[in-house]
């Protein structure tokens, strides 16, 4: 038997964690973090965003963490995650950040699920205060075409659900009142998507190109996208890395690198990739399933310290 395998004594671990927590930032205080929750969640759930906030605060001593709440209460915040125009939500967040004196020197942003693409909209539309790093955990950057739990046209219910949502999603009322319709992306009706989608088509520069969207993305130090390889809630899961179905069908995928958004660099992602600032992380788990140690090692230590 080999008994020489080294184990780190618990005291050393404790010391290591302690050291991590006291390393200050260049300007003396740690860079604040803003987090935006996903659908069905809220700012302050102790098992989700509350837990993430605590994890960050335990890892970086004295850090300011703002978990965004859209509305006046946790209940309103949860409901707004389903029913409020996303452009209005982004506007509220921009104002909130601009009003927050602790964020004026810059902040890092972490969005979970739909919070990922919403914080990207914040980065593109609101350059003050400056966002330094953007981390999208399971965000749907090219939208979704499917119901949670339905992967592909695997059964008639899923197929019908897709068709039905498509017929409804691009009507004005639904576009302005159902959050998920604002990132519904039907590859069989790309023209309709570009014309009628009020949010995602805009931030992805599908129509006229807004030069400030690209300029603002390029101000980021890093844009990190986390994809869950066994995600059954986001269809297609490739959207978490900016991939999507090739136009005209709902099966074959283009990666980000194969889209004009990248090759013609509508958003600066090509320039970011070529300068090592675009990061693709993956986890072999379902939607938003990650361990504390994964989050500490891959997100907190790499991008927040
Ligand atoms: C930001 O501050 C202005 C001026 O004090 C105030 O009118 C506005 O309601 C604030 N907005 C938010 C979202 O806090
Ligand atoms: C993106 O960046 C990576 C790492 O720098 C590089 O290997 C890859 O070729 C780039 N991809 C494209 C399509 O430019």
TrEMBL record:
GO terms for molecular function: palmitoyl-(protein) hydrolase activity. Belongs to the palmitoyl-protein thioesterase family. It comes from Sinanodonta woodiana (Chinese pond mussel). InterPro entries: AB_hydrolase_fold, Palm_thioest. The keyword Signal applies. This is Palmitoyl-protein thioesterase 1. Residues 1-28 form the signal peptide. It holds the Pfam family Palm_thioest. The lineage of its organism: Eukaryota, Metazoa, Spiralia, Lophotrochozoa, Mollusca.
């Amino acid at each position: 038997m080999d008994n020489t395998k080294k184990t780190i004594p618990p005291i050393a671990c404790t010391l290591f964690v302690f050291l991590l927590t006291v390393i200050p930032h260049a300007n003396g205080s740690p860079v604040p973090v803003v987090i935006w929750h996903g659908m069905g969640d809220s700012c302050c759930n102790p098992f989700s965003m509350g837990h993430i906030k605590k994890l960050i605060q335990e890892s970086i001593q004295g850090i300011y963490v703002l978990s965004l709440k859209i509305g006046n209460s946790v209940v309103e915040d949860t409901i707004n995650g389903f029913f409020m125009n996303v452009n209005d939500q982004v506007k509220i967040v921009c104002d909130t950040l601009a009003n927050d004196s602790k964020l004026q020197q810059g902040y890092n942003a972490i969005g979970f699920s739909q919070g990922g693409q919403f914080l990207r909209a914040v980065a593109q539309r609101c350059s003050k205060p400056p966002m330094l790093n953007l981390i999208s955990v399971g965000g749907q950057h090219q939208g979704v075409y499917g119901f949670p739990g339905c992967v592909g046209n695997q059964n008639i219910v899923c197929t019908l659900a897709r068709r039905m949502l498509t017929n409804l999603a691009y009507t004005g009322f639904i576009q302005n009142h159902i959050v998920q319709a604002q990132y519904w992306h039907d590859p069989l009706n790309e023209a309709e998507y570009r014309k009628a989608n009020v949010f995602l088509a805009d931030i992805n520069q599908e129509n006229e190109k807004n030069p400030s969207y690209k300029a603002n993305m390029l101000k980021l130090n890093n844009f990190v996208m986390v994809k869950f390889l066994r995600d059954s809630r986001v269809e297609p899961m490739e959207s978490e890395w900016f991939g999507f179905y090739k136009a005209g069908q709902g099966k074959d995928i283009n990666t980000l690198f194969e889209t004009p958004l990248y090759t013609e660099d509508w958003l600066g992602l090509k320039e970011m990739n070529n300068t090592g600032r675009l990061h693709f992380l993956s986890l072999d788990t379902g939607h938003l399933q990650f361990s504390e140690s994964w989050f500490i090692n891959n997100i907190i230590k790499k991008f927040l310290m």
